[in-house]
Amino acid sequence: MSINVRPDKRKPIIKQRQHQKMAESAHAYVRGNTARFYDWLASKSVQAALPQGPSVWICGDCHTGNLGPVSDLEGNIDIQIRDLDQTVIGNPAHDLLRLGLSLAMAARSSDLRGVTTSLMLEEMIGGYC
Fold first, then answer.
1. pTM of the predicted model, to two decimals?
2. What is the largest CA-CA distance in the chain?
3. Is 124 inside any structural domain?
4. Which domain holds residue 37?
């Protein structure tokens, strides 16, 4: 879809399109609403419940859409974070929580059984440790 719009009029159109995309599924909402996720994380009850990890570089927007195959110089392929435009120094639990939420919403949108979601999350945590 091509729309001719002056640059100073683009922001509301882009925002509207973002909202349309987020309305497509729970997974799309989680993926597209980083600000809401961090607002929720900032609440005192959530902060009190999260483990406090060391302050390290984190993705900041860790979800399934930002993971993918990356190869090294020898051609070995691994799944890694490949979108680093929102990296910050922060608590690694934030990335794990956001990725876990993203995985759960992707499984929900795919009509996978609850036990499958649980196994996915266990593997995610196991891969982190």
1. 0.76
2. 49
3. yes
4. 9-128
